[in-house]
Amino acid sequence: MSRKLDVITLENLHAGIMDVKNCVNDILQKLNMFQQRVHTLEMENSNLKHENKKLKSFLDQEYHKTDELDQYGRKENIRIYGNPEDFASEEDDGERKLLEIAAKLDIPVDVTHDLQRVHRLGKKPKTAKANPRGIYLFICLFIADTKSIV
Total structural domains in the chain? Predict the structure, then answer.
C-alpha cells in the first residue's frame, strides 16, 4: 500500500509541477506582451513629446509674428494723457480736445484725411475728480508727413 501512495504522490507531484510550469509559461507570455506594450507606449510617448516640442516652437514663432504685426499696426497711433475732460457733455470730446491741442501747437490737422479715429480710452468717469481718460489717435497710414502730427 505504501508503494501505491508513493505512485499517487509522484503523479500528483508531477501534475502539480506541470500546472506550475503552465502558469509560469502563461505569466511569461503575459510579461512579454506587457513589455511589448510598454515599448510601444514609450515610442508613442517619445513621438508625442517630439511633436509637442515642434508645436510649442511653432506657436512661439506665431506669437512673435502676431506681436510684430500688432506693434506694426500701432506704430502710427498716439495716446495723449492728462488733458482735462468735459464732464458736462455726454459725447466723447477726444476729437475736439485733439484739435485744441493741435491749434495750440500750431500743427495743421485735417480730421477727415489725417485721422481714422479719435476717441477717449475706457469708460467715462462719473465724477470730475477722477483722472481724465487718455485720448487715442488712429492716424491714417497714407499721410505723407506723419511726423508733423507726431
Answer: 2
